[in-house]
Amino acid sequence: MSDREIISTFKYVSRMRPEFMLSELTDYLKEEASVRQVYQTLEPLFFELGVDVIEEGNDYRIIRAASRKQIELSGDEIKKNDLFFSSPGVSRKMERLIEQYIEKKTSKKWDDPFVLEKIRKAIRNQKNSYWKEGKARNISYGKGYDVLGYLAYQFPVYFVQFQYLLYDMAKEGLLRDRMKILDIGSGPGTIPLSIIDLYNRLDDHKAEIHSIELFDENVEAYNFLVPQYAAIQSNVTVKEPIRANISEVDIEKLPENIDLMVFSNVLNEMKDLDLQQRTALVKKMSERLSPDGSIVIIEPADKNNSIEMRRLSIMLKQAGLKIYSPCSFLWSGECTLDKCWSFEQKQDIKAPRLMVRMAECDEPYRYINVDIKYSYAILRKDKLAKQSFITPAKSKFARMSKIDTHNQKRINVMCSLMSGDLGDEKYSLYRICDGTSKKAVYAVLPAHNLTEDNEVITKAEYGSILRIFNVLVKYNEANDSYNLLIGKGTTIESDSYSEAEEH
Fold first, then answer.
1. pTM over 0.85
2. Taking residues 271-276, what's their average pLDDT?
3. How far is Cα 38 from Cα 22, in angstroms, rounded to an integer?
4. Can you list the domains of the chain with their CATH numbers?
5. What is the mean pLDDT of the chain?
6. Mean pLDDT (whole number) for 123-131
7. Do residues 194 and 162 touch, judged by C-beta distance below 8 A?
8. How would you write 187-201 as a 3-class SS string?
9. 50, 142, 297, 384: least CB-packed within 10 angstroms?
10. How many CB atoms lie under 10 A from the CB of residue 436?
């Protein structure tokens, strides 16, 4: 009995009948085959074929799923997620699973002093390697304590920060009620675990998660943590990780029609590839993306990694992908800014119990990691963008590409807010951009100039569009950048940017 015949027969029957038992399929086959044989052939394809499967004894009930549609969050779903993000952190069940994995790996209690000190050493080694430059920067997860150090220090923040992105994508209509997801460089399963956690606060939406991971120690942790955590969310299916080097993986063996492809804190660690090669890698993998799918690239918020991520996103744009967010190109043309340091900042997470115990030492600051700052880009094949408005050529807004001609003058600008407050108590400082900047531009708001007319910038979300009227341009020679000094007579608006032509 050929697999091809089983698959083609299943497709025929599932089109004709909305519900049937898998054993009934054997009546349509030319040769005899057991229910188990048929199931093993079809199991990897069920999600792709758009059916739900319910095991009933030695048989399986096949139910045709409803047509895929855009997720529209209910009031209850929004309430649950807003409550989570009001005080974000790792769930108690997730904490306990990590503690159990430590006990499995070490044969000691998770908080045994010897175990904690070994994990601290792994964290120190990883941090020392992280800040090295070039080929000397070799971050590896080949040893057991490397993974335990990651789970204790980096994991909690990465676990929460992806949920911020995924929740925003859900609110913006980028997710479907049946999602096929590929996590590239999965580590111990951070992104799958993050997805499972968020889906636990959603209703009847389904996801099938595939992943790629090279290190055996990471795969071992993945296989311990992810399936157990997925057991709490029956709508999320996780597949065994594909064991491969990301730069050498055969994309023909990857799933097709991927709805969401994730590169989370992985491309910056691929120091054997230069920027052009990383661009080529992401572009090649995008061939497996569905026509309306999204690619999410996340990197740390430090200056070097953030700038490299922005360069990568611009190169991918030049290679044919569309930047959905956070960058907005408010004028026609290409971004030419060589060094763009831009990042999102969210509320600190609650330190998990393991992290708290790690910090019970002479240098506690070394082991506490709760602040969420990250650089990201969402890219797509289609023309969809979060902010798609193009400023009219004859508008009264100045392009930032021409800002050098306005030094010491007052102007109006339309821009995207590309950072949180980078300043201090006396001066609020925000990175802004309109997609044409040749040099970095910052909006500066002295505390004594704060008014009802300009306070919008202090409340606006990362990536949102601002219209700033009557602002003074000042060249900052020390940093070779421009500051837009917000005064008491400056007005800032952030509403439907489609109304911009009226101003």
1. yes
2. 90
3. 8
4. 3-64 (1.10.10), 76-320+347-380 (3.40.50.150), 400-502 (2.40.50.140)
5. 89
6. 80
7. yes
8. CCCHHHHHHHHHHCC
9. 142
10. 21
